[in-house]
Amino acid sequence: MYLVAHVDTKVCSETACKLCTQYCPEANTILYDNDMKTAFIAVDRCKACEICVSVCDNMAKHNAIKMVMISDIDHAFEMSKFGFRPNEWDHIEKPSVAVAEVAATGSGKD
Amino acid sequence: MGKEKIQINEEFWDIMPEDYRDLVTHATYGKPDRGWKDVGSSTELIAEHSLCAGCPESIAFRHILASIPAPEDTVMVGSTGCTSLVFPMVAIHNIHSLFGNQNAIATGLKRALAVRFPDKNKDVIVLAGDGATVDIGLDMTLQSWFRGERFTTICFDNELYANTGGQESGLMQKGFVAKMAPVGKKFEKVRLPEIARESGCAYVAVLTTSKPSLVERVVRQAVLIAREIGPTYLQIYTPCILEIGKQSMEGLQEMRDAEAAGERFKFREFVTPEAQAFIDDMAAKKKAEKLAATAPSAN
């Protein structure tokens, strides 16, 4: 298994900074749902460079993005499956992680 | 060209790749006010590329492609290097040239487009690495500026030949030791922005890609000035994190460090008086438009 970035939508939706979408090196990977006011990640495009983690922790200081094992994410958003349709994003269930605090290496599944 | 060229024949809609359909429905072709604000809610003109995780060059690509004023009427010319790995995934017409030949190709292209489409603005943008712009293609780069060819030259400056393992380049800093240049560089970084100013460029800017709003302003100005006045040159720092020994998440901080006061990529621009008048005129028009748009609601 491998790590991908995961946005905690509860923390993210309380802010409107969008900084991570600006600095992700991959195109159309960190998406922003304007209705739910949260960023979320297209896991099939994430290369796990962790720039968004350092941006969210150090520049925005929201600590909303963590690296998690891809198998721990429920309802992961895949660009190849859903396509780029911003109008439908508020109907799609946002990705979530069942384990409350998953550290970068602490999930135990590999 | 124009926006209608990217449309899909209805009968072929279902067999076209998802990425292409997204471009037709959600991209920002034909929108004069396109810019950084559209990212996240519209399809970007770049798709999954093969650059390394965390490569600052791909951040630069995203910022530039979001800022180009008229992508449907733009042709980009690339050259050999990591940029040529990205161009197949870019949704703007582009040409891959021989290594170093990019400004010569762009010259012919710009002139041909001016003859073929006399009533339309066709922008040509050269985007190449520092090896192609400064070492191998310096002749072509300088000659196109001497002739006053009206296109934009963008140099992705990573200060060495990163794609082939770290050889010394003209834009490398003095004393820098790279993997395949173990002695360390013995002469100063070539001062191409100053050379560009003296060679006839109407607008020259040196920047990093750590601020999307700045990249947007500079790229927009450079393309519009090249359309009306003369050659323009942008030098953008895109460090190769592998060759300078950084982790994937450290590229952004590296750029921020390199643009601090007194550092080599501190933002600076050289503008000729003619280009400055054009920029001021553009700003005044934009202001007037904004006033006109808000006036009815105020009354």
Describe the structure.
The complex is a heterodimer of chains A (110) and B (299). Chain A is α+β, with helices and mostly antiparallel strands and 110 residues long. Chain A has one domain: 2-Layer Sandwich (Alpha-Beta Plaits). Chain A has helices spanning 9-12, 19-23, 51-60, 79-82, and strands spanning 3-7, 30-33, 38-41, 65-69, 73-74, 96-97. In chain A, strands 1-4 form a two-stranded antiparallel ribbon. A two-stranded antiparallel ribbon of chain A has the order 2-3. The radius of gyration of chain A is 13 Å and the shape is globular. Mean pLDDT of chain A is 86; it is low at 105-110. Chain B has 299 residues and is an alpha/beta fold. A seven-stranded mixed beta sheet of chain B has the order 2-1-3-4-6-5-7, sandwiched between helices. In chain B, strand 5, helix 8 (212-228) and strand 6 (232-237) form a beta-alpha-beta unit. The longest helix of chain B is centred in the C-terminal third of the chain and has 26 residues, at 273-298. The A-B interface holds A 18, 21-28, 30-32, 34, 39, 45, 47-51, 53-55, 80, 83-86 and B 18, 21-22, 26, 36, 39-44, 46-49, 51-56, 58-59, 61-62, 212, 247-253.
In the CATH hierarchy, what is the architecture of chain A at level 2?
A: 2-Layer Sandwich
Low-confidence stretches of chain B: none
Q: How many separate structural domains of chain A?
A: 1
Kindly report the CATH topology of chain B. Rossmann fold
CATH topology label of chain A: Alpha-Beta Plaits
Rough outline of chain B: globular
The biggest sheet of chain A, with number of strands, parallel, antiparallel or mixed sense and barrel status, is: 2 strands, antiparallel
Distance between the termini of chain B: 41 Å
CATH class of chain A: Alpha Beta
Strand content of chain B: 5-15%
Question: Strand tally of chain A, please?
Answer: 6
Strand order of the largest sheet of chain B: 2-1-3-4-6-5-7
Describe the oligomeric state of these chains in a short phrase. Answer: heterodimer
* CATH class annotation of chain B: Alpha Beta
Rg from alpha-carbon coordinates of chain B: 20 Å
**Number of helix segments of chain A?**
4
User: Helix segment count of chain B?
Assistant: 10
| Main sheet makeup of chain B | 7 strands, mixed
Number of domains of chain B: 1
Helix-strand pattern of chain A: EHHEEHEEHE
Largest interface: A-B, 28 and 33 residues
